């Protein structure tokens, strides 16, 4: 029997989810997006099987309903769905939002009905947004957190978990509170810091415009996420406000401690500070795709000239290994640069690494 899926919000995450769920043999994915162009594009690109002209129409015949909209919008849609829509008995509603406490506070709107809401958050994505950025492989190897609320929800969560198996994500169940505390540290607060670093540069560059030209390499790596969708991050910041405020206190303590280290100027102490951070960072599970490690990158140390770039891309193309992005990080002041080649999966990156090691003499690293 055919499973009917409704995806509301067809941007990076909704579009990727629609593509991944099409891996099921008997599935029909209906999409809706508030933006008419996005909706038409999703249909045209084969991201959805059919389009609906309202969220309600998409949802009413569905077995699984995904809200892949900015989180404040998701709550508005949940209220509408529970009050006005006639959903199929046994339907499972879920979302992909980056925050969970606020959303789960509204899950009980579905209590006493024959439908259930299970919170969800695929911890994969990027600073890109929109339907054209959607990728079938986006969730592979990434954590996908589910936050069922009650007993009925636990059974529905198991069904949803099984259905989401085709995404090849690593599914895990956590409480909404736990979710928001952890994501504040690994995702939400870092976005505030990245945006602030960029704003600091903007101020500095008013007096010293040359600083802007020097903002290469490390600065760009550290602030990539400042290029994210501001509407989405506005909603996340509003919904995870309390956790973020706690993070400000802890960050200020951390900055005070670091300031002390710099002020004392003790070389051993300064080195220990950097060494501790490096050791912890290097031991992070980089192979798993997490919120801050959204793409699979190889750093290739090449002479900074166009010939070297086409050599690398040519070797990969010849071996049939697809890449998603290529950029040069001008991290050093001499004639050399680092070519960062991004792959869709860890598997492709490993094949690429072996192939380039065999065919070039360049130094190749995974950061
Ligand atoms: N971007 C990322 O890396 C990740 C985002 N998320 C979460 O997933 C959700 C979607 O994020 P993205 O796909 O990145 O955003 P996006 O901006 O790429 O897509 C959102 C889509 O929702 C549509 N939309 C907005 N309001 C709507 C409404 N009322 N009805 C129907 N469509 C509506 C927009 O037109 C847009 O096409 C957000 O809740 C976000 O917090 C979760 C994991 C990663
Ligand atoms: O671009 C990045 O590294 C991200 O941080 C992507 C991301 C954004 C929001 C999420 O809830 C999860 C992952």
Automatic annotation (TrEMBL):
It catalyses: prephenate + NAD(+) = 3-(4-hydroxyphenyl)pyruvate + CO2 + NADH. Its EC number is 1.3.1.12. Keywords: Amino-acid biosynthesis, Aromatic amino acid biosynthesis, NAD, Oxidoreductase, Tyrosine biosynthesis. Transmembrane segments: none annotated. Pathway: Amino-acid biosynthesis; L-tyrosine biosynthesis; (4-hydroxyphenyl)pyruvate from prephenate (NAD(+) route): step 1/1. GO terms for molecular function: prephenate dehydrogenase (NAD+) activity. It is an enzyme of class 1 (oxidoreductase). Residues 297-367 form the ACT domain. Residues 3-292 form the Prephenate/arogenate dehydrogenase domain. PANTHER family: PREPHENATE DEHYDROGENASE, PREPHENATE DEHYDROGENASE [NADP(+)]. Belongs to the prephenate/arogenate dehydrogenase family. This is Prephenate dehydrogenase. It comes from Bhargavaea ullalensis. The lineage of its organism: Bacteria, Bacillati, Bacillota, Bacilli, Bacillales.
């Amino acid at each position: 029997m055919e499973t009917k899926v409704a995806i509301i919000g067809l941007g990076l995450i909704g579009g990727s989810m629609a593509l991944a769920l099409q891996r099921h043999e008997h599935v029909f994915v209906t999409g809706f997006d508030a933006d008419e162009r996005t909706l038409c594009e999703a249909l045209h690109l084969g991201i959805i099987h059919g389009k609906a002209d309202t969220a309600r129409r998409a949802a009413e015949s569905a077995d699984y309903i995904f809200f892949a909209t900015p989180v404040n919008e998701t709550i508005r849609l949940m209220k509408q769905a529970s009050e006005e829509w006639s959903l199929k008995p046994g339907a499972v509603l879920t979302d992909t939002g980056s925050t969970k406490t606020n959303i789960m506070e509204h899950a009980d709107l579905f209590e006493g009905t024959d439908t259930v809401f299970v919170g969800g958050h695929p911890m994969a994505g990027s600073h890109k947004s929109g339907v054209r950025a959607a990728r079938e492989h986006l969730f592979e190897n990434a954590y996908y957190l589910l936050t069922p609320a009650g007993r009925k929800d636990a059974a529905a969560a198991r069904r949803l978990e099984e259905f989401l198996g085709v995404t090849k994500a690593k599914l895990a169940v956590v409480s909404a509170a736990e979710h928001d505390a952890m994501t504040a540290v690994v995702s939400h607060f870092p976005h505030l810091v990245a945006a602030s670093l960029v704003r600091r540069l903007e101020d500095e560059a008013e007096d010293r415009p040359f600083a802007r030209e020097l903002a290469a390499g490390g600065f760009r790596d550290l602030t990539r996420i400042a290029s994210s969708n501001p509407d989405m991050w506005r909603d996340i910041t509003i919904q995870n406000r309390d956790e973020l405020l706690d993070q400000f206190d802890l960050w200020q303590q951390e900055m005070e401690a670091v300031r002390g280290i710099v002020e004392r100027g003790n070389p051993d102490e300064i080195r220990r500070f950097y060494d501790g951070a490096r050791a912890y960072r290097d031991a992070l599970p980089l192979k798993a795709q997490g919120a801050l490690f959204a793409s699979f990158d190889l750093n290739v140390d090449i002479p900074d000239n166009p010939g070297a770039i086409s050599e690398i891309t040519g070797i990969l193309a010849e071996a049939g290994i697809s890449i998603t992005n290529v950029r040069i990080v001008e991290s050093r002041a001499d004639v050399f640069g680092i070519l960062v080649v991004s792959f869709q999966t860890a598997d492709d990156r490993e094949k690429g690494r072996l192939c380039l090691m065999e065919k070039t003499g360049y130094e190749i690293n995974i950061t």
